[in-house]
# Entry
Amino acid sequence: MRGRLNASLVTGGVLVGIVVLAALVSFVWTPHDPTLVDAAGKLREPGDGYLLGADKFGRDTFSQLMVGARTTLYVGIVAVGIAAAIGVPLGVIAGMTPLGWLSELIMRVNDLVFAFPALLLAVMLGAVYGAGTLTAMIAIGVATVPAFARVARAATLQVMVTDYILAARAAGRRRAAVAFRHVLPNISSVLIVQASVSFAIAILAEAALSFLGFGTRPPTPSWGRMLQESQELLFSTPRLALWPGLAIALAVLGFNLLGDGLRDYLDPKLRRIRAER
Amino acid sequence: MLSVEGLTVAADGVELVHDVSFTIAPGERVGLIGESGSGKSLTALSLMGLLPEGVTATGAARLHDRDLVGVPEKRLKDLRGSELAMVFQEPMTALNPLMRVGAQVAEVMTLHGVPRDRARARAAELLGRVRLPHPEQVARAYPHQLSGGQRQRVMLAIALANGPDLLICDEPTTALDVTVQKQMLDLIAEVAPALLFITHDLAVVASVCERVLVMYGGRVVESGPIREVFTRPRHRYTEGLLAASKLTPRGTRLPTIAGSVPAAGTFPGGCVFRNRCPHADTTCEQAPALTGEGHAHACWHPADRG
Amino acid sequence: MPTHAGTPLIEASGLTRVYHRPRTSLTRPGEPVHALRGVSLTIRKGERFGIVGESGSGKSTLLRLLCALDRPTAGSIRFDGREITGLPERRLRFLRHSLQIVFQDPMSSLDPRMRVRDLVAEPLVALGEPVGDRVTELLDAVGLPATAAGRYPHQFSGGQRQRIAIARALAPRPKVLVADEPVSALDVSVRGQILNLLADLVDELGLTLVFVSHDLSVVRHVCETVAVMNDGEIVETGAVDDVWAEPRHAYTRTLLQAVPTLEGFR
# Structure
């Protein structure tokens, strides 16, 4: 049941692993308090216990990055969780009754949400309910629902025409049991791939929202806000923008590679080709 | 014309085809019979230079005096589709769904240097030759507008386009209905310049070929004129396969071969059939050679000539 | 003749099934496809009934209707005297109990993500029956070791997978076994094993067998009665031996002549 490890999977796994590790360690230890304002250490250069230096308030950049990883993962997990929790059931239902009115309704509403820009939704929600991490997560999550619903529907359609679904029905399985016992396990690999790709998009969206001031609020460290705060010093102290920028880029790259790698690793078709040799 | 000597195909250190040798003379129709895992398709693909990545062939295979195994892809490309052509099992996936079939037939000719307008005219002619009714109309159709049998005829037309010396067919009628199959088999037998016909179906081979090679576990275990092999099989596998193929009326038990075909790479050493053979003994731990003029077999305890 | 001895178990009359192609225009509905055009047949208790036809003959559609996996456009099917057409799934439990299917390709009819144990027990679980030692018992009945239960379908050869599918079908002790081309995806050397196994089980368990195939010679080996289908209709029906020896319908004759034989040397 296992494929072969590939370069994308390993590289992606390592990058994602670093982000997860940094986030976990930040709970128990950071070099300095990431929120401690220290006028004396303003724009401190790297070195002397401050690995990457400090920002204009004297906060340690490295510590901020570590805690920022936490925010990033938190947003990703909740946003992807919301998207999957709503999108997958909708997609499976639509895929199992492709000709019914319900399927039609689900997919058309889906198209509507899909057509609506995620950032605009977040800005609107922020204006109504107040900006913050939670608002950002919900906005990103809702905006990602169609992606999950579509992928789940397409995969379900493929599974539904197989003989084992017919066999399960002939064995007397009800619809719900068919969905849980046969459809979900067989579309899980596609969903895992979708989740990792959506995760990357969510990270990027959160960074963008925080940059615009609609995301994570101070003083909670966030990579997006670190970027925003470093804006005015971009030419004098470029390292302040460089590190969070690099962190975002690598995390997004990591999740994308992980998704690619998982697709190859879990794809039964590719696996079969190997087995036949 | 085609001579294959000691062809061995391996992947990841596992031999999938072992030391296969045979020849095909011009105009001859040879069948290659085998069940799943026998290595029959790999044998054909290695002649075409179309082995999947990671699978390699060694040994010698020559068409006229040109090498087919172990030569650069570039030289094979010229040969493929001109002197050597192949028809595959599934005609739907072998055709380009976005291209009219006439253009696809013409394309193989322009690829090998035939001027475009001549190729187009000849395409319609070829479609007629494979007995497609209204060839001009068919030439303008897309693959999905044709039936399975018609698509397979188009594949045959493509294979014949450059007047190949040898036609290789891999289970060309397995996906077709029996009534369509018969016409297709008759057609192949009629138009093939020389034929290597790969199938699992003994009865199909009987209706098309003159000579047959029986493969099992990556080896040729028996070969000879079809009438002889089918009426007086010597190898115990051929014997069992023939017995199992004859469906008797209701109420009788079918003769069977014990066990199942092992997975690739798990065949026993020595005689590859010995773990399923009722006649196997310690002698069979040594690999038997394929011996005999005309009708040859590789078995220590062959069935008697009846 | 056993053909006339048994009481009718499955009675189908006037079965019609029309599909619609996907619509290509906003104003007109999709083109209709007549998969079945008024098919009637009677299958008796204990009978081995063969259905022969090529692709597009309607045999697969008929089979789905008989198994209540699809609904006819018109016509009725009575199983053991009870009408089954149009019934919702929850009222089909008696049918699921009494009638089970073995599909053509055991690679695709067994869920690749389930272990053999769960696959064989699935009909019992679905019908809310105790599983107990039944899986081991069934595996034994089809000639597989008890250790097979913990493995996945892809770890078995084609013939073994079809044995698993047969064990699964027999789980709820059905009265009728429907076999849809059960040997056409198998190697010749194992085909005989599966046909022998089916014959033995049908005998031992006193099953009624509905055997669908494109190959009249396989049906001749297995069945006593045959219905030949072409273009959505049954063109000929009768005792297999009679149809084999003296086909009356032109299509049956074409079909018989087209089957390649081992003796048909050039």
